[in-house]
Design brief:
With 445 residues, the protein is of the alpha+beta class. It has 16 helices and 16 strands. It has a domain of 227 residues.
């Protein structure tokens, strides 16, 4: 009797078949509209609804450019690829194939990817780790290779892997861009925006996939660099950037003074756990108790932490709005930047405690286990909202910000029109894809 009741509850909790039909129709309509936006094999960061303006990162770019900085080209292409596999529709893979070809064409001679630029013109470009650019492209290229199984796609993945290896400094760190340019900003060892963290994780993934020992060795050297760069007493976390020669915390952009940062240090703590799980080497765990203690101690009166703490004084430090000057009052700091936040290495703390309690092997198996899917009943409300929000043209529309409105006016475009953001497209496509996954793939059988 209990079995029958449980079965009936499961049936009642499942979303109606009509919702799945609607989700697929919504997804296909959104994909069709995003196909129209694709130019030169890729996508920008966002678009004016009338297609008169395309943005890269914070600025309009020519319509024949593509943006690699995610979500843009790699994020949108992954949605198409996921939909092609899930719906067993090879036609949906065509835009992803075009993106693959474009990424191959825009790749630097060393194998990296730039933020954005033209595909069919020669120009001086450098591969960058800033904003997850090269590593996001690599994740899509790996997914594409798994889809096709083609040797040429494997070689494209290996080309990016070579870029990760050749760009590493002798001291184990990575610059923000390679080859480094003339500015100190892009030659510094960079933790900002999780640059080094993303590289090390990519190397660990490549080693797991391809078995090439060079990837694991490079990741180890990156971990050794992290250990070396940890601050001393009172500042036992990591800075945003380091001078590659002196290994001292360095200025980044003009409004980012040298400072130890609880923001990027969250990712550093996480990747130290990843390195330990991959190698079993205890040295990668040794910096963590000191870092955790620092987070407990360095809390502002408002319960938050400053983005940067001045080396030597441990005082919260902020950037001047206009000059390369340090200020100590957040009220005097440059606007539009997260100077304070509730950053804390929750994942690293939990895994560290689990490792100590259960051992590496068991925790590693738990971490590597497929992520539990969201139950269908919890997706129904979100999927309904996403379907309702789609415009008749098949796009999710966002009002322009004040800055975007000014750009539209400057370009003689209607300032009152809505915008199409690739981040919104990717965010809204995900629950549709999740709902449409077969039950066996979702772990619900």
């Amino acid at each position: 009797m209990l079995h029958v009741v449980a079965l009936m509850i499961g049936v009642l909790a499942a979303p109606p078949a009509e919702l799945e039909v609607r989700a697929e129709a919504t997804l296909r309509k959104a994909l069709t509209a995003m196909t129209v936006r694709q130019r030169s094999g890729g996508w920008g960061m966002s678009y004016a609804q009338d297609d008169t303006v395309m943005w890269g990162e914070f600025r309009p770019v020519p319509r024949d450019w593509i943006t690699i900085q995610p979500p843009a080209t790699p994020g949108v292409a992954e949605v198409f690829l996921d939909a092609a596999r899930l719906l067993d529709d090879a036609k949906l893979a065509a835009p992803a194939r075009a993106a693959r070809n474009t990424l191959a064409a825009i790749q630097t001679p060393e194998g990296g990817l730039p933020h954005e630029g033209p595909v069919d013109r020669d120009w001086k470009k450098r591969g960058t780790f800033d904003d997850d650019t090269t590593t996001a492209a690599l994740r899509f290229l790996i997914a594409w290779w798994k889809y096709t199984g083609a040797e040429e796609d494997l070689q494209l993945v290996r080309r990016v892997g070579e870029f990760l290896l050749v760009s590493q400094y002798e001291n184990g760190g990575w610059p923000q861009a390679y080859p480094p340019g003339g500015s100190d900003y892009d030659r510094c060892i960079t933790f900002n925006d999780n640059a080094m963290v993303n590289v090390i994780r990519a190397l660990l993934h490549l080693h797991e996939l391809l078995g090439d020992a060079r990837y694991l060795e490079a990741a180890r050297r990156g971990g050794e660099c992290i250990i070396r760069l940890q601050g001393g007493p009172g500042e036992a976390v990591w800075a945003q950037q380091y001078d590659p020669e002196t290994l001292e915390p360095a200025w980044a952009r003009a409004f980012e003074p040298p400072g130890y940062t609880p923001a990027e240090s969250v990712g550093v703590c996480d990747v130290l756990i990843d390195l330990y799980l991959a190698t079993g080497e205890e040295r990668f765990l040794e910096p963590l108790p000191k870092a955790f203690a620092w987070y407990d101690e360095c809390v502002l009166p408002n319960g938050k932490r400053a983005r940067l703490y001045e080396p030597g004084t441990h005082r919260p430090v902020y950037g001047h709005p206009k000059e390369r000057v340090i200020v100590y009052d957040v009220a005097e700091a440059r606007g539009g930047y997260s100077w304070q936040g509730e950053w804390c290495p929750h994942r690293a703390k939990a895994l560290y405690e689990a490792i100590r309690a259960k051992g590496r092997d068991l925790v590693r198996r738990e971490v590597e286990a497929p992520e539990s899917p969201r139950p269908r009943e919890t997706l129904a409300e979100q999927v309904t909202a996403v379907c309702d929000a789609l415009s008749p043209e098949g796009e999710w529309l966002t009002p322009p910000s004040a800055g975007e409105r000014a750009i539209l006016e400057d370009r003689k475009a209607s300032p009152d029109q809505m915008l199409v953001h690739t981040r919104v497209f990717v965010k809204n496509a995900r629950p549709l894809l999740d709902l449409l996954r077969p039950q066996s793939a979702r772990g619900e059988e």
